[in-house]
Amino acid sequence: MDKLKVKKIVVLLPLVWVFCTVWIADERSAHAGYFSDIYNNIQEFKELPDQINELKESYSKALQDLDRAKMDTELYQKQNADLAEQNRQLTEMVEQLQEAEAARAQNASRLKTIAITAVALLAGYFILTRALRFGMRRTN
User: Fold this and answer.
1) Could you write out the DSSP letters of every residue in the chain?
2) What pLDDT sits at residue 23?
3) Cα 52–Cα 66–Cα 75 angle in degrees, nearest 5
4) Residue 40's closest CA among 29, 28, 32?
5) What gap in Å lies between CA 106 and CA 108, rounded to an integer?
6) Comparing C-alpha atoms, which of 7, 9, 27 is closest to residue 17?
7) CA distance 108 to 100
8) 7-37, pLDDT tens digit by residue?
9) Which pLDDT belongs to residue 140?
């Protein structure tokens, strides 16, 4: 039996050696990818504080921009209210000027009518007096 065990060991030993060689070669290539992944993950982890700082700065800048936009909005609303008040005042002034223009036009029309009536009455008076004199001379 001893010879049988020795033969089995002699046959199995080269097979085990080939199997281990192939397995170790596979392990090494697998470990190389595993270690590079770990290295890459550690590098990414080291870069996280920088990225967090960038995000904080970006957030602060966005808040400042938002505050500036709010102030601009408030300023525009105030200017809009001031312009609306000026617009209302200008509208009132235009209405007053239109009323004054209408009153002036009405007065001018009235004066024109009075002047034409006065001229017509004066002309009628002279024509009537001439006609009466002419008629009285003819009867005499």
Assistant:
1) -HHHHHHHHHHHHHHHHHHHHHHHHHHHHHHHHHHHHHHHHHHHHHHHHHHHHHHHHHHHHHHHHHHHHHHHHHHHHHHHHHHHHHHHHHHHHHHHHHHHHHHHHHHHHHHHHHHHHHHHHHHHHHHHHHHHHHHHHHH-
2) 63
3) 160
4) 32
5) 5
6) 9
7) 12
8) 777 777 777 777 767 666 555 554 456 667 7
9) 73
The position carrying tokens 């030993």 is: 13
Identity of the residue numbered 120: A
For tokens 């890459």, the residue is: 40
Length of the chain: 140
Rounded distance between C-alpha atoms, residue 33 and residue 99, angstroms: 92
Each residue of 62-110: pLDDT tens digit?
A: 999 999 999 999 999 999 999 999 999 999 999 999 999 999 999 999 9
pTM over 0.85: no
Question: Taking the CB of residue 11, how many other CB atoms lie within 10 A of it?
Answer: 9
